[in-house]
Design brief:
The protein has 2 domains: about 150 residues, Diaminopimelate Epimerase, Chain A, domain 1, CATH 3.10.310.10; about 120 residues, Diaminopimelate Epimerase, Chain A, domain 1, CATH 3.10.310. It is α+β, with helices and mostly antiparallel strands.
Amino acid sequence: MNMMVTGMAQERRPFLKMNGLGNDFLVWDARETPLRLTPDQIAKLGDRETGVGFDQMITVEKSPAGADAFMRIHNCDGSQVNACGNATRCIGRLLMEESGKDHVTIETNAGLLHAYATEDARVVTVDMGKPRLRWDQIPLAEEFADTRAIELQIGPIDDPILHTPAAVSMGNPHGIFWVSDVEAYDLSKVGPLLEHHPVFPEGANISLAHIFAPDEIRVKVWERGVGLTLACGTAACAVGVAAARDRKTGRKTTIHLPGGPIGIEWRESDDHVMMTGGTEIEYEAEADLGTLAFEKTGPGDADQDASAAADLKAGASA
């Protein structure tokens, strides 16, 4: 299967539907033919009832910096964001499969990111760079000397529902609340309040995190501009950094998200955060940019796996 398909000049354009541990994406190849969609069009495509449905829309473009590609990221509400770890793994996989290389560089609005192949072609490691830990780098609306636990709470002063989150930026801002049970809170209700809290001038991704075993953390995420999500790569990185920074864990952790586990290593040698996790191509499709109607045109990983299993079974019984 040709994983990257070059855009056509006509109104019909091919795309891939992908996901990283359930965090799902619509991926366009716009390296040869530019793609311009309005925020309203993106939101319509992102609608899970009437459109394709996705957490983020990814546009792969030529890199002004000379990297293998530039990755533009829009949330399903049409807003543009600077970083998405799961999408970086997905695009890294596509570029490596296309080029035959075991390492590619992806330019984003958050900087250059490096993706590396593993023994399993569907599992990719991404160097997410250094976390940003100062209050003005995250950014926060006011100065905090220590961002391991900032003054913020939801609920009554004498009995807050959630309080004193850690704050980290992985190219986008994150607030991490340490809890004893991530399911004990209705994140669909408190998430929007915290995402738009005045202390986060650019909004924030909100995570509930529970350390349930040595270097094992269960995490639930309200993603800025998206809502509840099965997985968020930058949130996994931010949680791993926050846990190690507060000496709650070591520098290598497994972050268990609803969509599956992600391996995080905050390297001591250079302070870079390495993220390793799976990717999946769900299907190939084609969309009419005028009507935004779409149709599937090719199989995904699961279909190929099923076909291979059927061939194996048929061969065994022959």
